[in-house]
Design goal:
The chain has 184 residues and is an alpha/beta fold. It folds into 2 domains: 1-37; 46-178, Vaccinia Virus protein VP39 (Rossmann fold), CATH 3.40.50.150. The chain has 5 helices and 7 strands. Strands 3-2-1-4-5-7-6 form a 7-stranded mixed beta sheet, with helices on one face. Bound molecules: S-adenosylmethionine. S-adenosylmethionine (SAM) binds at residues 34, 38-39, 41-44, 66, 68-70, 73-74, 88-91, 94, 117-119, 132, 158.
C-alpha cells in the first residue's frame, strides 16, 4: 500500500512538473516571439508621443493605426485628442492590458485593439500609421508600406528610420514619411 501511494505521489509530481514546464514554455513563446522577430515592448515617452501627434496632423474620419501598440500608451493619447484609433499587437497580455485600461479611461468607443502580426495586415485603407519599432524590422516594413499605402498616407516613426525612404519632416527624434503618388 505504501509503495502504491509513493507511485501515485511520484506520478502527481511528474504531472505537476510537466504542467509547470509547459506553462513556462508558453510564457516564453509569448514574450520571446516579439523579442526575436519584432520589437520588444518599450512604451513611447510622453514628449515623443506629443511630437508624433503634431507631425501626423490626423483629422477625424482618418483611419489611424499604431503598429505594435504595446500597452496602449499611444492609443490613449490619440483617443484623448478625440480621434478613433486602432492598435495591432501580437502580445496577448498587452492586448488585454490596453483594452482594460481603455475601458477604465472611458475611451473604449474610440479604441480597438487586435491581437495580430502587423506584417500580415493590408495597409491600403490606412491614412496614418504610428510606429515605434526596432532597427531590424524597418527594411521589410518599408517595402510593405510603400507597396500598400495609398497616396497621401503618413507614417510617423518614433526613433527608428526607414533605410531608403526620405522623411518629409523630422523633429524630436520622430520622423514623418508621406506616401507620394507614383511618378507619372
Ligand atoms: C517598442 S514597443 C511600442 C509600443 C507602443 N507602440 C508605444 O509606442 O508605446 C513595440 C511593440 O510592438 C509589438 N510588436 C513587435 N512586432 C510586432 C508585429 N510584427 N506585430 C504586432 N506587434 C508587434 C511588441 O510586442 C511591442 O509591444
Amino acid at each position: 500500500m505504501d509503495g502504491m501511494l509513493l507511485n501515485y505521489l511520484l506520478l502527481g509530481l511528474v504531472i505537476l512538473t510537466l504542467g509547470v514546464l509547459l506553462y513556462l514554455i508558453a510564457l516564453q513563446c509569448i514574450f520571446l516571439w516579439p523579442t526575436l522577430f519584432g520589437a520588444v515592448f518599450v512604451p513611447s515617452k510622453e514628449a515623443q508621443i506629443r511630437t508624433m501627434l503634431a507631425l501626423a496632423k490626423a483629422t477625424p474620419g482618418e483611419r489611424i493605426v499604431d503598429l505594435g501598440s504595446g500597452d496602449g500608451t499611444v492609443l490613449f493619447a490619440v483617443a484623448q485628442e478625440g480621434l478613433d484609433v486602432e492598435g495591432l499587437e501580437m502580445n496577448p497580455i498587452l492586448v488585454k492590458r490596453s483594452l482594460r485600461k481603455a475601458n477604465a479611461l472611458g475611451l473604449q468607443e474610440r479604441i480597438s485593439v487586435q491581437r495580430k502580426n502587423f506584417f500580415h495586415i493590408d495597409f491600403s485603407e490606412y491614412d496614418v500609421i504610428l510606429l515605434y519599432g526596432i532597427t531590424y524590422i524597418m527594411n521589410k516594413l518599408e517595402r510593405k508600406l510603400r507597396k500598400e499605402l495609398k497616396p497621401g498616407a503618413r507614417v510617423i516613426s518614433n526613433h527608428f528610420q526607414f533605410p531608403n525612404w526620405q522623411p518629409e519632416r523630422e523633429e524630436n527624434d520622430v520622423r514623418m514619411y508621406r506616401m507620394n503618388p507614383p511618378a507619372s
